[in-house]
Amino acid sequence: MQGFFVGVADKVAPVLKPLLDQMATMDFSAWGQQIGEVVALLIQGFADGSLGEILLQSAKIALTEAANFALGILTSIGRVIGQLLSEAVKNAVLMFQIVTTADFWKGLGNALIAAAQGFIALMLDGVAAILGALRNVPGIGGKIGAAADSVGTQAQAMREGAGASADASGAQIGPMFDQIKARMAEEMANVVNAAKDGFGQGSSVFDTGAMNEELDAMMGKLFDKVQSVSEKSLVEAPVKQINAVGEEMLSTTGKDKVSHLQRIGGGGLAGAADPARMEQKRTNSLLGDVRGLLRDIRGKINSNPPAEGAVFG
Length: 313
Hints:
By secondary structure, this protein is an all-alpha fold.
């Protein structure tokens, strides 16, 4: 099992180590400060009662914005319905103009003629194919072949006529279809613009600018309160800690036996943080390190004495 996990670590460790090294260089203090700021605002807001006012003001703004949004939707729907009615009238006028134009009926007639000519050409092609199959019959084959060629010629003429009629119909009706497409695009653009304009008018019925300014003022006041409390506590914290030690000794002994040295941290009670003792421990540790370093140097000199005649300065 140990060998198994050693094998796993051999492949996994090179991948994980750069990620861990990168995390070790990341500074999370900014995140902590942001979280601490939010928590401090909440605590201070609860303490002085301003959080309820902020929440109430936020709720008012939210409800006002919701009302504006609902009115914007209703106004937009009303504008869209009115615009659709207007567009329907425009569409009816355009269709009336088209159907009262001579080119429309001419183009429609040419389209019907082209369809009929195409159908006749298809039928004549069938007849020509049947007659062509009888071209080799003895005696009457020559006459039948001539008839087949004549029918084929008529079919080709019908196809050419159908093409000409279709082109004429396209030239006559094509511009009308272009007008219809342009009318549809214009209608869609007008409806979209009506919806936007209606929503913009409805969503600005109730002005929330003053309420937002009041909310910003509340938040700024709360933030300033948190800053002042934090700065004051940081300044007074050491003094309060030292005075607390003296008060505890007075309450324990009943006499004022707190010396000046103890007031500045040079004595203290059992279990209490003593700055003087901590500084003494740090100094002793440094002296121990120096003593160990000198011991190592002396050991190296004894194990490898200098050559005779060497000069040390």
